[in-house]
Every structure is written in structure tokens, then in C-alpha cells.
Amino acid sequence: MITRLTLCFQTLILLLLVAGCGPSITASPEMTVNPTQTVPPPPSETPIPLAVMVNGEAITLEDFKSELARFQDARGTDLATENNGSEIVLQALIDQLLLAQGARSRGISLGDNEIETEIERLINEMGGTENYLSWLQANHYTEATFAQALRLEMLATEMVEQILSGVSDLELQAHAQHILVATQAEAEGILQQLLAGSDFGELAANFSLDLSTKPGGGDLGWFAAGSLTAPSVEEAIFQQQPGDSPMIVASEFGYHVVQLIALEERALPYETLLARQEQAVENWLDDRLQQADIEIFIEA
């Protein structure tokens, strides 16, 4: 949603240039004045309706409507009944343009030959020009608007790749175990048994309320920060050192007796890495949105 932006709705008006009258010429008896041909001033250009301006670069109303139509086709619903359809599309267009502008600011550019090469590749994949033109029409594109959209998409992709290159697939991870119980008194009783030498896995299998880890003796496995559903438990674990005694931590689920087994840098699971990458792009966009000069001319 576009709550981060200050909406600035403006009505586009056509400015008409009115030609003024020049000085008249009076003929003297000694001169012959050929009739002058009055040339009307060239008509003023009609401003192209805009949806939004991002750092001085326009997204036209036509481009917005076409993208909204594509979104509507993909959803298979009538967006007239949805409150946020236009906002989703407008925000996506703004994000894409910010990414493309970011790529340009880093010296990345795409020549016409690169766009033409990509279009030729698409034509071949689609089985020929006729199929390509039919696809354009079905997806609310002209050849010109698709080439422009493709250029922005390719630039945005380059910027995303640069952002993702800064996200490491290695991260400090913890291997820990826990026992979840309902009351602090129960947790303290289990902690005393552990300190007296009882086996953590056996106590977890007998008493833990966490059905997902109970069969494995309370083993939480390896995880990076931000992975557990109980932030207080995760924070306590990452503050421990391997070999430290178990401790009690309260959460919305109850009371946990937790113990860190090991702490080391490891390769992130695919799902966690994907989340880190998505967050990196979102953070980059949030930062650019705060700095950007954005004017919105439609009510999305």
C-alpha cells in the first residue's frame, strides 16, 4: 500500500497558447505591398495524462491503466470491487521505476540493440512475429510500450541483482534445545532436574508441550536469527555461549527451559536466504521511497 507516500492529487489542464497581434504595416504610395499569407501558430501539444512522477520521471496514465488491466487479467477478478488493486499496481510501478533509476545511477544502461535482441529472443520463443503481436495485444501492449516496459524491467532486474549480491548465504546460526511448560514453577522444577544431571531429551519427551520438538527431545535444530516464533526465546539463545547452563525464558506460549548446544556460521536454508534477499530489496526500496520526490496524480 502507498501509505508511505504523500498523495498529491492534481487535475491536468490543457494550457492554450494565444498568439498576440504584431504591428500593422501601412503601404506608402511608393511601395507595393504584396498580400501577406497569415500562418497560424502551431497548435500547442496536449499534455500526456500522467499517473505519477518519480524523481522527475513520468509514469503515464496509459501505462498505469494497462498494468492494472494485466493485473486484473492475472487475478481473474473485477478490481472495481477491490479497494487495494490500484494501490498494488501503482506501488509496483513506482518500485520498478525506483529500481531502474538506481541501476542508471550506478552507470548501468541498456542500448536499443540489447532490447531488440531480447525481443527477438521472445519472438523466437513464441513461435514467430504473428504470435508475438497477438500476445502483445492480449496483454494490453503496443510494440512501443512493451519495448519501454522491457527496458525498465531489465534495468530493475540489474539493480535487484546488485542488491542481492550483498546478501551473504552464510550467517551465524544456533543449535539449541528447549522444553516448553505452562507455569514458571514447572520450568523451575525441570531446570533443577537438569542441573542435577537429568537428561534434557528425556525430560523434553516426557514434559514438553511443544508437540513439534517433543519427539526429538526438544531439539530445535540449526536456525538463524528471526527464525523462531518466540522472539524472546531466540534472543536468550543467541545471548548464551555453548556449554552454558540451561535457563528459563517466558514467552506468549508459556515457559521455556532453553539451552544452546552450538553456535557457528553456516549456510542458510533456501527459505531463510530467500527471506533475507526479499528483505534486502524491501529495505532498499523503503530507503529510496523516503528520499524520492514523488507526485501522484490519480486516486488509487
Structural class by helix and strand composition:
alpha+beta
State which percent range the strand residues make up: 15-25%
What name does the CATH topology of the largest domain carry? Triger factor/SurA peptide-binding fold
- With strands numbered from the N-terminus, the spatial order across the biggest sheet is 4-3-6-5
Name the shape in a single word. elongated
By CATH's scheme, which homologous superfamily of the largest domain applies?
A: Porin chaperone SurA, peptide-binding domain
What string gives the helices and strands in order?
EEHHHHHEHHEHEEHE
Range of helix content: 40-55%
Major pleated sheet: 4 strands, antiparallel
Number of strands: 7
* Secondary-structure arrangement, i.e. CATH architecture of the largest domain: Orthogonal Bundle
Distance between the termini: 10 Å
Domain tally: 2
